[in-house]
Amino acid sequence: MRPLQTSRLIPASPEQIFSAFTDPARLARWWGPAGFRNTFELFQFETGGRWKYVMHGPDGRDYDNESTFVEVLPRQKVVIEHTSLPKYRLTITLEPSEVGTTVSWVQEFEKPDVARGIAHIVVPANEQNLDRLTAEVVPA
């Protein structure tokens, strides 16, 4: 199976978008699909750093997550290895343009059959995540 991919042109600079990743309070506000909120236990935003958090779903369920920041290139790229199930690698790149920044989101699952089984959830969730990021960095 091919990676799950999406991209979005956001009318903000790479610096503005990257800062929404570096500040844990801001990241907790926009990370995840619509209706979710987050509680961070550990947030080491650097190459090799760990990230442990709970996503609180709109249905009242809690989802434990643990990841490693494989690569952090300021204003350019963030690569996250999701080490709890389902295992995947998420590569987020920031490409500046004259009108903003194209944020590309490429998610590669360890097991293709898992990706196929949850693609109907993950694809719209990734779009919602970019909606929330846009709302975080673009003033209303």
Keyphrases for this structure?
Alpha-D-Glucose-1,6-Bisphosphate, Chain A, domain 4, 42% strand, alpha+beta, 3 helices, 140 residues
**Biggest sheet, in brief?**
7 strands, antiparallel
User: Strand tally, please?
Assistant: 7
Query: What is the CATH third-level topology name?
Result: Alpha-D-Glucose-1,6-Bisphosphate, Chain A, domain 4
Placed side by side, the strands forming the largest sheet appear as 1-7-6-5-4-3-2
Secondary structural class: alpha+beta
Alpha-carbon distance between the two ends: 38 Å
Q: From the alpha-carbon coordinates, what is the Rg to the nearest angstrom?
A: 14 Å
Total separate domains: 1
CATH class: Alpha Beta
Strand residues, percent: 35-45%
Envelope shape: globular
* Elements, N to C (H/E): EHHEEEEEEH
Name given to the CATH homologous superfamily: START domain
The CATH architecture would be 2-Layer Sandwich
Helix content: 25-40%
Count of individual helical segments: 3
